[in-house]
Write a structure and sequence with these properties.
9 strands; single chain; alpha/beta; five-stranded parallel sheet; 7 helices
Length: 206
């Protein structure tokens, strides 16, 4: 299996759109990125494919929005595949790959007095009324869910505007470095110029 510069981890029902934008922006920049929708072979077992993709990736791009976190608090009763990916990624960090995880913290747009305002991701302690449980998930008995989430958010993340991926590209490219590139990495300014026609103007933050 080929090597990848990064593995995109995301929740399908909530984060497919922003993940797809990241994938194609990074692909245009010269990176070989593992995204299941583009890289998994038709009919291949999902779990086997993602484990292989993860093992062949130099970096782990964790796409995290508040919606991504829904279900994490119940992962001690029901398997959560996103959490499972994070657990495997943290295993690699604990084995010495200290720069492996790159959290992409996706903000959310809110309508306030007729204006769209960007609320930056800030759910580091869990969702309202759902703090991280200090119990084991169904997929990992080495650390509790709370310990997993603390380890994940201990890594410096990159805030992402879901309507303006180009604005975060320089930071993402810097975090990825040159590993897993195809044909060389383009200059950040060149990549942004290519991506900007599809981006909406940046909104005020709240």
């Amino acid at each position: 299996m080929e090597q990848f510069g990064g593995f995109l981890s995301y929740r399908v029902w909530s984060d497919t759109d922003v993940t797809e934008k990241c994938f194609y922006a990074l692909e245009r920049a010269g990176y070989k990125i593992f995204w299941d929708k583009a890289c998994l072979q038709p009919g291949a077992p999902w779990e086997q494919g993602f484990v292989e993709g993860l093992s062949k990736s130099s970096r782990f791009l964790a796409v995290i929005s508040e919606k991504t976190l829904e279900g994490i608090a119940e992962a001690d009763k029901k398997q959560d595949n996103v959490l499972k990916e994070w657990e495997i990624a943290i295993d690699r960090v604990e084995q010495g790959e200290t720069t492996f995880i790159i959290p992409l913290l996706v903000g959310e747009y809110l309508e306030v007095d007729g204006n769209s305002l960007l609320k930056k991701f800030n759910a580091f302690g869990g969702l309202p009324g759902k703090p991280w449980p200090d119990t084991y998930s169904t997929t990992n008995k080495k650390r509790t869910i709370k310990q997993t989430m603390q380890a994940l958010f201990a890594v410096q993340g990159i805030h992402v505007d879901p309507r303006n991926i180009a604005g975060s590209l320089p930071q993402i490219q810097q975090a990825l470095g040159t590993a897993g590139t195809s044909g060389g990495v383009k200059d950040e300014r060149e990549t942004i110029e290519e991506t900007m026609p599809n981006a909406e103007p940046a909104a005020p933050n709240i």
